[in-house]
Amino acid sequence: xxxxxxxxxxKMIVDPxxxxxxxxxxxxxxGERLGNGGEIVHYIPPSPASVGPMxxxxxxxxxxLRQGVxxxxxxxxxxxGFVFIHPFDDGNGRIHxxxxxxxxxxxxFTPENTIFPVSAHILDNMADYESCLESFSKRVMEITRYEIxxxxxxxxxxxxxxxxxxxxxxxxxxxxxxVIEETIDSVIPAELVFLxxxxxxxxxxxxxxxxxxxxxxxxxxxxxxxNGVLAASKRKKYFPMLSDEEIGSLEKSVKKLLLGGELxxxxxxxx
Length: 271
Hints:
- GO terms for molecular function: ATP binding.
- By secondary structure, the protein is mostly helical.
- The protein folds into 2 domains: 3-188, Fic-like fold, CATH 1.10.3290; 209-258.
- It has 11 helices and 4 strands; from the N terminus they run αββαααααββααααα.
- The protein has helices spanning 3-13, 48-64, 71-85, 92-106, 118-124, 126-143, 161-165, 170-208, 213-224, 232-238, 244-258, and strands spanning 30-33, 39-43, 146-148, 154-156.
- Strands 1-2 form a two-stranded antiparallel sheet. Strands 3-4 form a two-stranded antiparallel sheet.
- The longest helix has 39 residues, at 170-208.
- The protein is elongated.
- 23% of the residues are buried.
């Protein structure tokens, strides 16, 4: 990957109105604004002047790690290095997770043409992810001096960029190994079970009404969104041709096979 690739990816995932044509030129930070006008700052990334050189170093390191380094360690070093640099004003977290997938795939760690649900597991366990990020960000914030003006513009008072330039990726590597292990042991088997039950539900539903696959998929989705019941508005718009008896039988299949068993629900309140 090169600088142009990072910019292209950022433009793909961020609203075009807010996408960047280059790395950031301002001092951004990760934090939250309080109702009283105050700010809680969780992390201050390197200064704008350091972003370009650091990204060049990251790209060079990415090339170097292709040979002789375990793909998981390479993915941890590069993806977390990227998110610590925080080179864009938006989209850094999503690109960070993309890099994990991309490096694992190019390192032949994951099976070819297979979606390895690492990101899903990360997002489902945000406390662990945030703890990993904080293992670095807290060290940065302990020695960073800064001030924020009334418009929320932050100015660093001392240089802490070296902490990002030479960060220790041990905890990040251990975290990623743990996420991958849990993905293999728990997430993938659960997804396989769901897919098998999904196919079984579809076949059972087709014995009730021989509908096209896309119609059955829509019926299942609508029921999952409404506790196993097809909402009146969805029925009127998409399935007016089905009888009450057919609707009941189809809902029963969804509840039994995809929602953990028989459920007792009254008529849908959605209109």
